[in-house]
Amino acid sequence: MIANNIFKAIADFCQNVLFVTFDSLRSLDNWWVQNTVSWVFFLIGVLGFFYWLGELNKHTKAGEK
């Protein structure tokens, strides 16, 4: 019973606290604003991925010396 309440508490926290911004974006009528936010998150992810690859490349070259 306690484990069930813990999972319900986690679900409640995620739905009512963490995803409030996404619910507000979903309720917007402006398609451009919704997609701009999605593209910004996508670009941040791509930049982070290439930064990570560059760091891996540095560590690989440093290990070969």
Number of strands: 0
What would the principal axes of the Cα set say about the shape? flat
Low-confidence regions: none
Radius of gyration: 20 Å
Strand content: under 5%
Ends apart, CA distance between termini: 58 Å
Mind describing the biggest β-sheet? none
Number of domains: 1
Order of helices and strands: HHH
* Helical percentage: over 70%
Mean pLDDT score: 88
Work out the helix count.
Answer: 3
* Structural class designation: mainly alpha
Short descriptors:
3 helices, flat, single chain, mainly alpha, 65 residues
Would you mind describing this structure in some detail?
- With 65 residues, the protein is mostly helical.
- It has one domain.
- Helix content is 89%, strand content 0%.
- It contains three helices and no strands.
- It has helices spanning 2-18, 20-26, 31-64.
- The protein is flat, with a radius of gyration of 20 Å.
- The termini are far apart.
Write a short abstract of this structure.
This protein is mostly helical and 65 residues long. It has three helices and no strands. 0% of the residues are buried.
Topology summary:
Elements (H helix, E strand, L loop, with lengths): L1 H17 L1 H7 L4 H34 L1
